[in-house]
Amino acid sequence: MLSAAMTDLLNDQLNREFFSSNLYLQMSSWAEAEGLDGCATFLRNHADEEMGHMKRFYNYINEKGAMAIIGAIDAPQTKFKDIKDVFEQIYEHEQHITQKIHEIVKAAFSEGDMTTFNFLQYFVAEQHEEETLVRSILDRVKIIGLDGKGVFFIDQELARYGSGEVTVAESMAPGAE
Ligand SMILES: [Fe+2]
Ligand SMILES: [Fe+2]
User: Fold this and answer.
1) 148 Cα–ligand 2 center, Å
2) pLDDT tier for residue 177 given thresholds of 50, 70 and 90
3) What pLDDT, on the 0 to 100 scale, is given for residue 162?
4) Closest ligand to 95 CA?
5) Which of 72, 116, 141, 163 sits CB 3.0–4.6 Å from 108 for a disulfide?
6) pLDDT value of residue 105
7) For residue 36, is pLDDT > 90?
8) pLDDT tens for residues 113-166?
9) Is the pLDDT of residue 24 over 90?
10) What is the CA(17)–ligand 1 centre distance, in A?
């Protein structure tokens, strides 16, 4: 049984995951229009992951006998300066999502709703992983730069991430590459 307050919090997060998915899908479309195929693939896969998160909230809320509610989802922005701008915005967005997840975790704990507290642990771990991934991409963008062939190399890197050819952990391990 979910409290009314917890149901609202979980539904808000469901809609945030939906927005995240739309944002990354829109960014993917921008990347494709810019000819950045690796970046486009990476972002499309990321959008799918966020839709998976949305469904986790959807299923959980309904399993608990409450009702998942799909609200109005804001339209994501369509213009981005460059690849660095895209990933800076993703990083900022993910940090915001992490903060929201943590707020719900705190609420679940103080309500004594341990089932929801446990359900949310997946997202605590997931947010840590996503922030680490995006930060590692931003580090690469800073090292490689966007001049000359820089954009091409970054796009190649993202193609490798996007295809699942390398995981973040592998790519960051000492002596990787
Ligand atoms: Fe998510
Ligand atoms: Fe995310």
Assistant:
1) 30
2) very low
3) 67
4) 2
5) 116
6) 98
7) yes
8) 999 999 999 999 999 999 999 999 999 999 999 988 999 999 998 988 866 666
9) yes
10) 5
Q: Identify which ligand lies nearest to the alpha carbon of 90.
A: 2
* C-alpha to C-alpha distance for 162 and 121, rounded to whole angstroms: 25
The region that residue 35 occupies, defined by phi over 0 for left and psi between -120 and 50 for alpha, beta otherwise, is left
How far apart CA 116 and CA 123 sit, in angstroms, is: 11
CATH number of 4-73+80-172: 1.20.1260.10
Do the Cβ atoms of 24 and 50 come closer than 8 Å?
yes
Ligand 2 centre to CA of 22 (Å) is 11
Q: CA-to-CA distance for 61 and 151, rounded, in angstroms?
A: 42
Mean pLDDT lowest among 49-53, 58-62, 171-175: 171-175
Using a CB cutoff of 5 Å, list residues around ligand 1, an ion: 17, 50, 53
- Whole-angstrom CA distances from 175 to 106, 138, 162, 170 are 39, 19, 21, 9
CB 117 within 8 A of CB 98: no
pTM score, whole prediction: 0.91
CB contact at 8 A, 46 and 30:
no
The Å distance, Cα 65 to ligand 1 centre, comes to 23
Residues near ion ligand 2 (CB < 5 Å) are 130
Contact (Cβ atoms closer than 8 angstroms) between residue 10 and residue 61: yes
Length of the chain: 177
